[in-house]
C-alpha cells in the first residue's frame, strides 16, 4: 500500500471520528489575525532603529559600537588589541572591498585563518574552534530583539559564528531592520532571484547563555564568551 493511500485512509478515519467532512487548505486560505509582523516598529527612521537596536542589544549582553567606513579598520584593530588574541578567523568573502578592508586583511595581526570553501567541514570547524576571535559580516540587525541574521555561505559557515571565543559582527546601518519579518522578506526575494544560495539562515541574539535550575544566568557557556556588534553608520 502506498504512502498516499495510507495517508488518505488515516485522514479519512480522523474525519469520520470527528463527524465532519474532509476539507482542503485551498478552501480555507490563511487570514492573519493582525498585522503586527508588518507594523511593529514601522515608521521609524534609521537613526531611531539604531537607538532601539542598541538598547535591545545591550539588554542581551552585546557590546554595541559604531564607526564609519573610513574608521572601520582602526575600530577593528582596537577591538583586536583589547583581547590580544593569538589566533583569529575571518570569512572568505568579497565584502572586504565593499567595506574598505582589503588592505586591512593584508596587514592585520595576528595573521588570520580563513573559513575556506573547498577545504571540508572538519578543517573549517577545527580552525573556528581554535580561534580566539572571529570577525564576520552580518546581513541584518533586528532592532526589536538585538538579533543579527546571517545566511550560511561557503566562505562563512554556521560554525564560524559559534565556535570562536570572542565574536564581532560588522553590520551596515542601512541594514538595521525593525524585526524578523522584514529580514525574511529580503531573504525570500534574494533566494527566489538566485542572488542567495544558502543551506540555513542563523538568528543570533547575543552571546550564548544558559540558566540552571536556580535561574542563574551563565553567559558564554556553550559558544562565544562575548559578542560585539560594530555598526558602520555611513553604509
UniProtKB/TrEMBL annotation:
It comes from Lacticaseibacillus paracasei (Lactobacillus paracasei). Gene3D superfamilies: NagB/RpiA/CoA transferase-like. This is Lactate utilization protein C. Residues 54-232 form the LUD domain. InterPro entries: FTHF_cligase-like_sf, LUD_dom, NagB/RpiA_transferase-like. Pfam families: LUD_dom. It comes from the Bacteria.
